[in-house]
Amino acid sequence: xxxxxxxxxxxxxxxxxxxxxxxxxxxxxxxxxxxxxxxxxxxxxxxxxxxxxxxxxxxxxxxxxxxxxxxxxxxxxxxxxxxxxxxxxxxxxxxxxxxxxxxxxxxxxxxxxxxxxxxxxxxxxxxxxxxxxxxxxxxxxxxxxxxxxxxxxxxxxxxxxxxxxxxxxxxxxxxxxxxxxxxxxxx
Length: 187
Prior knowledge:
Layout: H1 2-25, E1 33-38, E2 41-47, H2 54-60, H3 65-72, E3 85-89, E4 95-96, E5 106-112, H4 119-126, H5 130-136, E6 149-156, H6 172-183
Parallel strand pairs: 1-5
Antiparallel strand pairs: 1-2, 2-3, 4-6, 5-6
């Protein structure tokens, strides 16, 4: 009986890990964002597209606007040039932990191993155990080869481009009609 329970428990843990691996191992470029080291911190490398601004990207990646501006050495009014690279800070404020690979509000993150990287450090930066990182990437040991693409977790991601604060337009005629109804005596 204990063996059956252990098997079910193991299956419950392994299934999400397998689905996470499929996201990156079978097709690493589908909706995967790239994490790089920038000023000794992890950041998501983003190519600016036409119409994007600091506040839109801040909302999309769940990062405080001041932190985003500071990391890139720009101010809030800076017009972002299409094609330029912007670094999106990655940390506890936008890191999605223990999520399903099928969530619509997250994007998987990949990292290209550099010389002298080690599994312990990368797992620590990703906020997971070394064993979890190995499981995500179908690795039997912690050996890292330079140039290898690793799945390192998820970032919260809001794909909608709706304005942060929507203005409400008031129909003046509608207000007058409502006032007339309120003034009518109830019979």
